[in-house]
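Chapter review: from sequence to fold.
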Amino acid sequence: MGVGSGSPVRTAIGWGIQRMKNWIALVATTLVFSPVSFAEESNQPYIDLLKQTMPPEKNVAPAAESGEPDPYIQSIRKKQEAQPGWVEDPSQNYTDRLRESDPKRGQNESSEGYSDGIRSRLEPKPPGGAIEAVMQNRSELQQKRLGDIHHAFGFRVSASRTFSITGETGSANGNFSDYYKTGYTPELSFFWEYQPFHSEWFGNFGLIGSGTVSYAMGKGRFPSAVAGSLANPFGGSDFTLDSRTNLRFITIPVSVGLIYRFNLPRIIRPYAMVAPTLTAYGEYRDDNKGSKTGYSTGILFSGGINLEVDRLFKELAWDLYADYGIKKFYLTIDYSKLTTASGLISFDRSVVSLGMTYEY
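The token string follows.
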């Protein structure tokens, strides 16, 4: 059987191809226009599900159209119009009418803006700025110096002193006062303190080291059995026993001991100290006869009060803290007594001194 242009086989193949085209077109149409189409599937199915389970909204004002007042303002307007005595003035806009109906109108009105009104009720700005006002004690703000206190240092200058310097029996030809002036001569002391424990309530214990420099000026004297003068062999007035030799006597007591400061009274802070002491001394003369040096040991007792003065000088207190880390400083009034335990020369002295103490 031939397969010509009009053969039954060729006709059957053409019919099959046409039927396949029709099915493809039907499937494509169904996928495009079906309500379950993948192209229109929601990207928020959970929210859509919640919307379907929620009850229908009630009493919801429709969205305001362009140029229409806000629905909330419209509701306030209706309440105002419902009040007795409400008269609408076409010459006024709605905002002005609401302002006039406010019962508190006029109580807080001001010609200045809100920010200016708040600013006018604040305290005037201090000249020079807030930090300078704090440092000059013109502000209620308080300085805050951070960190713990574990050290102190300071100095003292003697205001008055009494002392006795004596040598062993037979070691000197006279008393100390026979050679040196016993009037006031200043003593200068320095100290440094380590405070392993510091409390503003319970006080603080510390290990303290101190050193003092003291000196006396005098003149050499001639030994004589006649007290007070030497006979002049050429006649005339007798010679005094003073020679032309100038003397200097220097003492340097060095102490290391314990100190306790009682801080509870705050402004007035007493303290007490006890320290073993080594006193080095030297006598120097200007006649090339040589000098004499030595040392003695003893014990030093000291007590006094610290008056806190950084509260009074806030600008200085801030400068000392900013530059050197000093947190408190005090005016110190001190009384100390040294007693000699051993040595060729005994030093027994009592000193009242004034100075400054700095804590950091």
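Two observations follow directly from the output. The longest strand covers residues 242-261. The CA atoms of residues 84 and 101 lie 12 Å apart.
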